[in-house]
Write a structure and sequence with these properties.
By secondary structure, the chain is of the alpha+beta class. The protein folds into four domains: 60 residues, no CATH class; 249 residues, 3-Layer(aba) Sandwich (D-Maltodextrin-Binding Protein, domain 2), CATH 3.40.190.10; 212 residues, Dipeptide-binding Protein, Domain 3 (Dipeptide-binding Protein, domain 3, Roll), CATH 3.10.105; 45 residues, no CATH class. Helices cover 32% and strands 22% of the residues. Strands 2, 9, 10, 11, 12, 13, 14, 18, 19, 20 and 21 form an eleven-stranded mixed sheet that branches. A four-stranded antiparallel sheet has the order 5-6-8-7, covered by helices on one side. A hairpin with a 2-residue loop joins strand 7 and strand 8. Helix 10 runs antiparallel to helix 12, helix 11 runs antiparallel to helix 14 and helix 17 packs antiparallel against helix 18. The radius of gyration is 36 Å and the shape is globular. The two termini are 34 Å apart.
């Protein structure tokens, strides 16, 4: 109390007065007060008692006091109140194409169907946001000593979206539906030679004819409810209403769809599954909107019709208007871009020095920058650099024009201008005629350097074939320019999807092919490089090497010895790179865009594009605050 009185006295008597009588009057009034502390009624007259200078000082003191209160309150709030995700909100995703079969039997061949199927259905195994294989419906599993039997125990708390229990009977039903040739499921070829039996209500056992290390990778298909599909036969399954209004057990369930007057689906609505057996997603509803091309998709994003788009081609990144409003996720995709040499179609490609020269003339870092705006990672082997078995000790052929020219010279090829050749020399007559014919057909100038082997009376030319898309066209243009600097001539052959299937995959009708290969998570690439896959398989160039065959066959059977398996894949890569059957360029990145108002996305690797939803349970739009003691 004494301190309060002292402070109040200081406030009124700190200044010297020019009018002593007025000060005496104030002192008299003050002495007659019943309390040393001014009342509220007295305080409202304080402005009349203070001079201008005193009022300014009081105002500053009050302002400083208020500022300190605000600062301390904000600091306390920041330290003791924390935001956390909460349920609610609607996320709108824009995708290309229209849904047709939201059904695990057929969705694998279509991105739109795969996106929706992944969210609606559960699988025995799945991939997390880091590209690692983890159990989904499978709670635990055991492998027999001979690596031929896999026993899988299912979660017992899983319900279908209509409330019924999911059991081993549903797994058995789905598996044999996929294996049935009458249903023509793409999964049939993957499951050939595999059998399944039901042990009890929540246990199944798979049996293989031979050990296969990446077997669990095959068990990522969605499980169908038997009660919903068992009455449907193969003749009418594609007509079933369940293909568009499915019943699954995944984190989201079908809510509704919207069609236009032409009967095309324009919107597809999913709502959160409240009975989901794992962490229930925060986002209450997902809406998918469908578009026919990327310009439409980007326009929808710019017009705020959608919050995210499934894939943005890097060359269209500049078309995004408010870039600061979006997160651009550049995710590793296990897809290798390579230049494949068909040595059977062009004899010159059988020369290892020529193949090496073609490789050394390409600046792969610049190709990545030009073709995909840097959204790719260089790979010197048939495996992506993110793969667990990638051999980082490889000795690749680095970019060197001078060394490439030297190799070509050693093989008998020299850069010569056709106009410098003596056209009256009979030995040159046939060569010059061939050069003239080729230049007229393919619009190549005569007054440039051509790689010519005068002993054989021929010039060096190749046909570069490629599927028709922007990335391939940019790559082909730059590859052609690089090779023609050496003096060889390139004719570009752009293929339609039909030509790719018939001429290339079936007939092997190409000399050099620019193509992507989807590798997957496991390092087993037998489908692309084992000699058993020649002539109709995915071994596009009919490559054959006994050592490679042996390494690939042994590695895929090493189920439990991971280190030995990786060692064999390292040796396989060394052998393949030495043979130079192809030039491996880079692994592609998947550019996924989301509005920044959506939080919680995580991930670095996608095995398939639909795995961008692998962290869907962590996504959120709304938050709440809570007090932390």
């Amino acid at each position: 109390m004494k301190n309060i009185k002292r402070n109040f006295n200081s406030l009124f008597f700190v200044f010297k007065r020019k009018k002593p009588q007025k000060q005496l009057d104030k002192n008299l009034v003050y002495s007659l007060s019943k309390s040393n502390i001014p009342s509220g009624g007295q305080l409202k007259h304080i402005g009349k008692l203070l001079n201008k200078k005193e009022r300014v000082i009081l105002f500053i003191a009050f302002f400083l006091l208020l500022a300190n209160i605000v600062y301390l309150s904000y600091n306390f709030y920041q330290k003791n109140w924390q935001a956390y995700p909460t349920d609610g909100g609607v996320h709108v995703e824009g995708v290309l194409g229209l849904p047709r079969f939201i059904n695990p039997l057929y969705a694998i061949d279509r991105d739109v169907d795969s996106d929706l199927s992944y969210l609606i259905y559960s699988s025995l195994f799945t991939y997390n946001s880091q590209g690692e294989l983890v159990g989904d419906l499978a709670s635990d599993w055991q492998t027999s000593d001979d690596n031929l039997e896999y026993t899988i125990n299912l979660r017992e708390n899983v319900k279908w979206h209509n409330g019924e229990k999911l059991t081993a009977d549903d797994v058995l039903f789905t598996f044999y539906l996929m294996k049935n040739p009458d249903f023509r499921s793409p999964w049939q070829r993957n499951l050939a030679g595999v059998e399944l039996e039901q042990i009890d209500e929540y246990t199944v056992k798979f049996s293989l004819q031979e050990p296969y290390a990446p077997f669990f990778e095959l068990l990522t298909f969605g499980i169908l409810p038997r009660f919903a599909w068992e009455a449907t036969n193969s003749d009418f399954i594609l007509l079933s209403d369940l293909n568009l209004k499915p019943i699954g057990s995944g984190p989201y369930e079908f809510k509704s769809l919207v069609k236009n007057t032409a009967g095309e689906i324009k919107e597809y609505h999913l709502q959160v599954n409240d009975d989901y057996y794992k962490a229930k997603p925060y986002v209450e509803e997902l809406v998918f909107k469908f578009y026919f091309d990327h310009p439409q998709l980007i326009q929808a994003l710019n017009n705020q019709e959608v919050d995210a788009i499934s894939y943005l081609p890097p060359e269209r990144k500049e078309n995004i208007v408010a870039k600061n409003s979006f997160n651009f996720h550049s995710l590793d995709l296990p897809q290798i871009n390579a230049v494949f040499f068909n040595q059977e179609a062009n004899e010159a490609l059988q020369d290892l020095d020529i193949r090496k020269a073609l490789a050394m003339s390409l600046n792969r870092d610049k190709l990545i920058e030009k073709a995909v705006d840097g959204h790719g990672k260089r790979s010197d082997s048939p495996l992506p650099i993110s793969n667990i078995a990638y051999n980082h000790e490889l000795s690749p052929l680095n970019y060197s024009i001078s060394q490439a020219q030297e190799l070509l010279s050693q093989s008998g090829w020299e850069k010569i201008n056709p106009q410098d050749l003596d056209n009256e020399d009979e030995e040159n007559e046939e060569l010059l005629n061939n050069i003239l014919e080729f230049s007229q057909e393919n619009e190549h100038e005569l007054n440039t350097d051509w790689l010519i082997n005068q002993e054989e009376s021929e010039f060096l030319t190749f046909k570069l074939s490629l599927p028709n898309n922007y990335e391939n066209k940019v790559l082909a243009k730059n590859i052609k320019e690089a090779w023609e600097k050496l003096g060889l001539k390139v004719n570009i052959d752009i293929l339609s999807n039909e030509q790719l299937q018939t001429d290339i995959l079936n007939e092997r009708d190409f000399e050099i092919l620019l193509q992507k290969q989807m590798i997957g998570n496991d390092p087993d690439v037998s489908a692309f490089w084992h000699s058993s896959q020649k002539d109709g398989g995915l071994n596009l160039i009919n490559y054959q090497n006994e050592e490679v065959d042996e390494l690939l066959s042994e590695a895929r059977q090493l189920v439990k010895n991971r280190e030995e398996r990786i060692d064999k894949y390292h040796k396989f890569q060394e052998t393949l790179v030495e043979d130079m059957p192809a030039i491996f360029l880079y692994s592609t990145n998947y550019l996924y865009i989301q509005n920044k108002k959506l939080k919680g996305f995580s991930g670095e690797v996608l095995i398939e594009p639909y795995h961008r939803f692998s962290s869907i349970s962590d996504w959120y739009l709304k938050t709440k605050k809570r007090f932390i003691r």
